[in-house]
């Protein structure tokens, strides 16, 4: 799995438990009635396996977990780039319900660390600042800065492999949500087509009634034959589109087809990119030919569906980095005021 290799395989297939679990998760997310379809698992398994294979390919690009702590902020340029100050790290950890629940659980009482996915939004902005230009200090120089916001700690687990598997499961549920969005969009499309069909049919009836009516006796009625033919063509096309759309929505096999459209082409919906930036300690982007002190940084950006992009890193969180319960309450109160 992302993040942890075969239709539903033989009983000794090592991937079989993962495939079966993810199929059921997808069905629960999209429509539990899919279990009424004969051999629904066999119909969904190839797409699930293709998505698993794609996630494994991406998983090879994800580095080993890095420590997320105040001391790491001073020692690891990546962590320093992701957080403005060292104190931002325990503040984030204390706000994470997943992380708090993990360390508070009796089963994890002896755990001295947790593994998780750190996700955040990267923003680049142009600002006016001071810069060294040809060995002279200049003010109001346009500079690009890099910053991160919306930090979240997800998929908390006792070891790195378990965390990666949970990330993979969440990605699969997100892909299922994309399928559900498509189904909802088709339902809206069917309603729009039904309304358009009714309007076109009404207009066609009106023109047909007018044609050859009393207006023609007075000799002042326009020939509406061309308009009638145009409406007939539009109505036929709308009816065909409506029938096709409605048929896919009316059958559970049609729903499985929509799911498979996504799962069999995961590369269209799930991508991982390496972003290279050279930045100063203050988060100012520095050109490659500049002599200004800066660090070469590499980030991983996860794109999932339309509009969802986040810089990610697998992290290891020592228990001592967690704020005390009193500090967490104080921090929560500060945000409420």
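-> sequence recovered:
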């Amino acid at each position: 799995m992302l993040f942890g290799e075969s239709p539903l395989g033989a009983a000794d297939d090592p991937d079989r438990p993962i495939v079966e679990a993810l199929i059921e998760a997808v069905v629960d997310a999209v429509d539990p009635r899919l279990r009424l379809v004969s051999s629904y698992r066999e119909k969904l398994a190839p797409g699930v396996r293709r998505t698993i294979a794609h996630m494994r390919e991406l998983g090879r690009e994800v580095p080993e977990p890095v420590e997320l702590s105040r001391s790491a902020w001073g020692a690891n340029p990546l962590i320093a780039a992701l957080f403005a100050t060292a104190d931002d790290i325990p503040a984030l950890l204390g706000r994470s319900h997943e992380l708090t629940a993990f360390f508070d659980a009796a089963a994890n009482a002896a755990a001295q660390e947790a593994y998780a996915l750190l996700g955040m939004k990267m923003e680049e902005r142009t600002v006016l600042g001071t810069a060294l230009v040809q060995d002279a200090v200049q003010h109001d120089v346009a500079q690009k800065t890099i910053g991160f916001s919306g930090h979240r700690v997800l998929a908390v687990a006792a070891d790195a492999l378990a965390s990666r598997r949970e990330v993979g499961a969440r990605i699969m549920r997100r892909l299922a949500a994309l399928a559900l969005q498509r189904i909802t969009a088709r339902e809206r499309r069917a309603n729009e087509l039904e309304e358009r069909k009714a309007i076109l049919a009404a207009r066609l009836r009106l023109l047909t009634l007018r044609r050859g009516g009393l207006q023609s006796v007075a000799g002042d009625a326009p020939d509406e034959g061309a308009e009638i033919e145009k409406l007939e063509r539009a109505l036929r096309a709308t009816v065909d589109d409506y029938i096709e759309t409605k048929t896919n929505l009316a059958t559970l096999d049609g729903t499985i087809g929509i799911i498979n459209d996504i799962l069999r082409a995961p590369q269209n919906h799930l991508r991982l990119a390496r972003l290279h930036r050279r930045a100063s300690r203050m988060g100012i982007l520095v050109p490659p030919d500049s002599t200004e002190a800066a660090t070469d940084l590499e980030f991983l950006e996860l794109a999932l569906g339309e509009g969802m992009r986040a810089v990610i890193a697998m992290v290891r969180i020592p228990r001592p980095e967690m704020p005390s319960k009193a500090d967490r309450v104080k921090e929560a109160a500060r945000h409420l005021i």
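The radius of gyration is 29 Å.
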